[in-house]
Amino acid sequence: MAGKHGGGITSVASGLGERVRTARKELGLSQAQLAGEELTKGFISQLESGLVRPSIRSLQLIAGRLGKPLDYFLGDESLATEKRVAFHRLAAETAAEQRDWDLVREHVDQGLAGAPEAAERARFLYLLAQAETAARAYERTFEVVGEALALVEVASEPQLVASLLFFQGSAYGGMDQLVAATDALEASRDIIERYEVLDPRLRSRVMLSLGTVYRRLRRSSKAIISYESALATASRASELTLAARGYMGIAATHYDSGELDAAIANYRRALELFQRVSDIDFELNALQSIATVQFENEHVEEAKVSAERAMQRALEAGSARWAAVAEVTLARITLREGHARDALRMAKHAAQVLAESGDKVNQADALGASGAAYEALGLVAEADTAYRSAIDLHTSVGDLADRAGMAAEYARVLRARGEIDAAFEMLELANGGGTSR
Question: What pTM was estimated for this model as a whole?
Answer without folding.
Answer: 0.61
